[in-house]
Design goal:
The protein has 277 residues and is α/β, with parallel strands linked by helices. The protein contains nine helices and ten strands. The chain binds fe (iii) ion (2 copies) and zinc ion.
Length: 277
Amino acid sequence: MLNIGCHLSSSKGFLAMGKTALSIGANTFQFFTRNPRGGKAKAVNPEDAAALVRLCQENNFAKLLAHAPYTMNPCAADEGLRDFARNVMEGDLAMLEYVPGNLYNFHPGSHVKQGVEVGVEKISAMLNEVLHKDLHTTVLLETMAGKGSEVGRTFEELRAILDKVRLNEKMGVCLDTCHIFDGGYDIVNDLDGVLEKFDRIIGLERLQAIHLNDSLNVLGSHKDRHACIGAGNIGLEAMTRIINHPALRSLPFYLETPNELPGYANEIALLREKYIE
Ligand code: FE
Ligand code: FE
Ligand code: ZN
C-alpha cells in the first residue's frame, strides 16, 4: 500500500487534520508546527492530540510529518536569530511528544556569507543542544535546492551535519524531489544512480520521508518552485518510478504541490493508481 498524504492546514487542530486526510484518500499528512513564518506555538489540547493518535492507529496511518517554520535559520550569523531557531525547535519537539513516534522536518538554513563549513557547524551545534535521549520524534534534515546560500543541497553537506550530531540515531533525512532535481540530481534519467549516491554518502537507512513535488524549473536550476504532479520538468513517468522504486516504495510520501484539497485528492488517487501493489 502506498503511504501518501499532503500538506494540510493545522488551524483547526490535530483531529481535524486526520479527518481531512481520510476525506481525500490519504493515510498520512504533513503540517506546519506553527505559522510558517515563525510566530508563537499554539497551546496543545491533549485530548485533541490523543484523538488524532487513535484515528491514525485505527486507520493504519504512516508516520506524520511536522514541518518547522521555514523562516527559522539555525545557522544565522546573528546569535539572536539562532536563539530563536533553537527555541522554536525545542518548543516544537516538546509539542510533538503529544503525538509521539512521528517525524519533524526542518530546512538546515542559509549560511549567507559565512560559508558552508560554518553553517554545518552551527546547525549541528543547535541539534546537539536540542536533541535529548527521551525524544520520541525523529528529526529530519530536508534536502534543499541550493537557492542562495542554502545548506543541504548536496548529500555531502547533509552527511557533514549528521556526523557532528552526537544523538544522531534521532536524525534522518527527508528527500524533496523538486529540491534535489533543482539541486542537480537527475532523478528523471538516473534515479538508481542518485539513490546509490545517497546510499554511499548518507546511507539509505537515514531516508525516512519523501516530499513528492514536480518542479517548474529544469535540472540544476537551484530555484525551488514546486509544480503539480506531472505538470513540471520531472513528469509523471519519473514520479511513477520514484513511488515504485524498491528503496523508496515503503516510505511515506507527502505532496507539497500547489493544490487545494480537491487537487490533492486527485493527485493521491492518481498516484495510488500508478503504484504497483
Ligand atoms: Fe520544506
Ligand atoms: Fe519540501
Ligand atoms: Zn520547496
